[in-house]
Amino acid sequence: MAYTNDKKLKIGEAAAFLGVTVQTLRNWEKSGKLAAQKSEGGHRYYFQKDLERFTVDLPSLGLAWASSAQLPQIPQEYYCERQDRFTSRLEKMALQLLHAGVVGRDMASLLTAVVGEIGDNSFMHNVGNWPDVHGIFFAYDIGKRMIVLADRGQGVRATLSRVRPQIATDTEALRIAFTEIVSGRAPEKRGNGLKVVRRIVERGSITLLFRSGVARVLYPQKSSSLIVETATDNIRGTYAVITF
């Protein structure tokens, strides 16, 4: 899957491509959900590749990447094989958040910090021990106010068990990771980064879904209540959806 079609579509053609009305497109542009380009004459147009990207269900794609036995095909821009590439894309996202004007500077900083902690955790705690595919899935849609990260690593329970071998379940592992300082020699320690994530989420208008193994954590927007529960399917590494 690759977005390489630079064909320009007029607003009516773009509306037909997405199956919506022209007025809906204008409303989306006004709200920041889907930006239009403008010609020198002031006419709106869209690149087809941007519309294709807009139609992708990022949470489902990230979930499939994290949990499927066979990797689904994803756009190359969503795959960060190394930590330096992740850092570069994170910096790009931070600039785009500010440029889009969808959130203020403070919220942009909070979102960047949350994403940075989760992504860096994936690399730090799996270095040299990736079960199959190294690196992470990292995709975002600022218009939809959504960020998705996933990895096919060892998962929270396995990495926490290096310093807490008595952990018996995935739900217990996630609860510890988000609420307790876990001491241990790097890179064996795990959980401190996720505790930072919890504190940041509690401060901002951010909703977080985080999964690993057969457990998931849900932090509703503007809530200090940590919900940890058993999921119906297994995530081999970690999977996170951030909405704002």
Give a verbal description of the structure.
InterPro entries: DNA-bd_dom_put_sf (IPR009061), MerR-type_HTH_dom (IPR000551), MerR_fam (IPR047057). This protein is α+β, with helices and mostly antiparallel strands and 244 residues long. It folds into two domains: 8-54, Multidrug-efflux Transporter Regulator, Chain: A, Domain 2, CATH 1.10.1660.10; 58-243, Heat Shock Protein 90. The chain is 41% helix and 22% strand. The protein has a five-stranded antiparallel beta sheet with strand order 4-5-6-8-7, sandwiched between helices. A three-stranded antiparallel beta sheet has the order 1-3-2. Strand 2 and strand 3 form a beta hairpin. Helix 5 (83-100) runs antiparallel to helix 6 (105-124) and helix 6 runs antiparallel to helix 9 (192-203). The longest helix has 20 residues, at 105-124.
Keyphrases for this structure?
about 240 residues; alpha+beta; Multidrug-efflux Transporter Regulator, Chain: A, Domain 2; Heat Shock Protein 90; five-stranded antiparallel β-sheet; three-stranded antiparallel β-sheet; 9 helices; elongated; MerR-type_HTH_dom; DNA-bd_dom_put_sf; DNA-binding; transcription; MerR_fam
Question: What is the structure about, briefly put?
Answer:
With 244 residues, the protein is α+β, with helices and mostly antiparallel strands.
Which of globular, elongated, flat, extended, rod-shaped describes the shape? elongated
Number of domains: 2
The biggest beta sheet is recorded as:
5 strands, antiparallel
User: Which CATH first-tier class of the largest domain would you pick?
Assistant: Alpha Beta
N-to-C series of helices and strands: EHHEEHHEHHEEHHHEE
Side-by-side strand order of the widest sheet: 4-5-6-8-7
Rounded to an integer in angstroms, the radius of gyration calculated over CA atoms is: 19 Å
Residue share in helix: 40-55%
The rounded distance between the terminal residues' Cα atoms is 27 Å
Poorly predicted ranges: 185-189
Structural class by SSE content: alpha+beta
Number of helix segments?
9
Number-wise, the strands total 8
In the CATH hierarchy, the architecture of the largest domain is 2-Layer Sandwich
Strand residue percentage: 15-25%
Classify the fold: give the CATH topology of the largest domain.
Answer: Heat Shock Protein 90
The average pLDDT is 89
Pfam family, one: MerR
Keywords: DNA-binding, Repressor, Transcription, Transcription regulation
Organism: Candidatus Staskawiczbacteria bacterium RIFCSPHIGHO2_01_FULL_39_25
InterPro entries: DNA-bd_dom_put_sf (IPR009061), MerR-type_HTH_dom (IPR000551), MerR_fam (IPR047057)
